[in-house]
Amino acid sequence: MNLKKITICLGFILSFSSLLSLPRPHNPDELGSVQILRSALAMDNHYLLYLVEDFEGERPWDFYRVDSFLAQTQFAASIAKSEAFQEETKLIRESGYPNLENQTSFLLQSYVENPRLDHWEIRPKEPILLPLGMPIQGILWVYSEGHHINLSMGLSQKKSKDLYFDLGTLNFVGWRRLEFRINLPRENTRLIQSMSFPISFASFRLKSLASQKKGEFHLYFDNLCFVIDKRTFSYPGSEVNDTWGNKR
Question: Looking at domain 44-229, which CATH architecture does it have?
Answer without folding.
Answer: Sandwich (2.60)
